[in-house]
Structure formats: C-alpha cells, structure tokens
Amino acid sequence: MIDITKAMQAFVAVVDKGNFVSAAEMLDTSTAAISRQISGLESHLGVRLLHRTTRRLSLTDIGQEFYSRSQSILSDIAEAESMAGQEVLQPKGMLRISAPHSYGIHELAPLLTVFRRQYPDLRLDIDLSDRVVDLANEGIDVALRISRALTSQLIARRLHEISMIVCATPAYLKQHGCPQSPDDLSEHAILNYSYLSTGENWAFTHQDGSEVSIRVHPTVQATNGELLTTLALDDAGIIVQPDFILAPYLARGELVPILPQWSMGRFYLYALYLSRKHLSAKVRAFIDFMAEQAAQR
What we know:
Layout: H1 4-17, H2 20-26, H3 31-45, E1 50-52, E2 57-59, H4 61-89, E3 93-99, H5 101-118, E4 122-128, H6 135-138, E5 142-147, E6 155-162, E7 164-168, H7 170-176, E8 190-193, E9 201-206, E10 211-215, E11 220-222, H8 225-233, E12 238-242, H9 243-251, E13 256-257, E14 262-263, E15 267-273, H10 281-295
Parallel strand pairs: 3-4, 3-5, 8-11, 8-12
Antiparallel strand pairs: 1-2, 5-15, 6-15, 7-12, 7-13, 9-10, 9-14
Helix pairs in contact: 1-2, 1-3, 1-4, 2-3
C-alpha cells in the first residue's frame, strides 16, 4: 500500500529539483526508489503527473494542480509537527480537566489561580461533575477523582488522602440517639452519596485494626454532597462526607462527628489520565503541580 505522504514528498522533490537524481540526493534515497514512488503515486491516482523524456521532465496539467496542492499539504504537515514538538517542551493550548463538583469549588478553584500564573499560555476547560467520565470520548485530558481503591483501566496518580467524616446535627442525635457502633446505623436515617466508591456498603476500621462493612439503607440518595449536607443540617439524618465540605459546620458545632473510634478507611484524591506514553506537557504540568500542592498539605 502506498505511503501517500512519502510519495508526495518524492513528487514535489522531483519537480523542485527537475530530475530524479537530485531529488533522490535531497531525500537521501535511491533514484530507483524515487521512480517507484512516482509510478506508484500515478497508479494510485489513476493519472499521469509527469511527462518524461530522456532530456527533461515536465508537469501535466493535472500534475501542476497536484503539485500545488501537495506543497500546501506538506507545509501543513510540517507546521503541525513543529507545533506538536513545541507542545512537548512547553505547556500550551487547551487543558480539559474533570473534577467532582464540591471538590472543584472548595479545593481546586483556589489552586487554579496559582497554576495559571505558572502557565499563562494554557487555557483551561473545567468540567465539574461527580459522575464517571469517559476521558477518551469526552476529550478530557485529566480527571480528578476521590476513591478508596480504583478499578479503572486508566493511569492513576495518587495525590493525597481525603478524610471522610460520619456526622449529624446535635438535634438529630438528641432525638434519635447517637450510634455507638456501625451496626447501629441500621436504625437511623441515612443520607447517602450516590457516587461513594463503596456504594451503600459503608466500610469502617476500628482503632484496634478490626474492620466491618455495613450495608446502609438510605432514606435519601443524591449525586451531590452539598445537597446532602444541607439536608443533614436540617436534622434529616446521618451523612458521610469529605472534610473539605464539612469543616466549617464541624468548627461551628452545627454538625458533630459520630463513631469516634471508627474511621471510614482511607480515601484518596487521584489524577486519572489515558496513557503514560507521549504524555503531553500540559497534562504532565498539571499533574506535577497537583502533586506539589498535595505535598505541602
């Protein structure tokens, strides 16, 4: 099968140099190879591009038109290769990032100001969504996700731990009692986050190292943690949410942690991307930046 780009290069070189020998020298190949490429190109197109005589070469009418188009196409290819080469060295262009909605507002937004100062040639397209995104089909360069363990086939870089806190309002606990063990949750109204990586199975680790997994039966399930937090603040039930959402309410005593001897295990923030091979400068810059910020926490 003909390599149309190489055949175009051979054809343009022959026209520019006026003969096969000089074209072969310019492309560092043999005269026979150049001749085969030109013949293959003409066969592929079904037209004659060159008039050949023992003394000179000349373009046919269609050959003249094809020569002009080939010059333009090869110029565009060279420009594209040059731009791609620059992208490898310096982050530029559009960087598309997906992040959980609440994390994006509370944690990511302040970091993006610093990131943009470091990389002013980058433009950012931010998708805040708690759903699982398809990086390839949706054109996402990097996705930030919070999980205990990832089963994705994507490449993942763990950035830092996220504290998950089980809590409720003092008024709710006064009315319904405070759970003393994870098993007691079955007797309470549960406000569950739909995208929690463990689903409706809340996994706890005791201070002594023992583990237990409790299947909860939510009275409310939602895809947004702040909606659930608002419901919890209205004394509607028990929630488990990350500290970056709950911190101000815990500090003011509007919500109080429960099950102090138990933790929800280790959740982490991950950066997900498609491949380590030919990783673009913009994706590498963002992931390295997030890792640097995580190290300073």
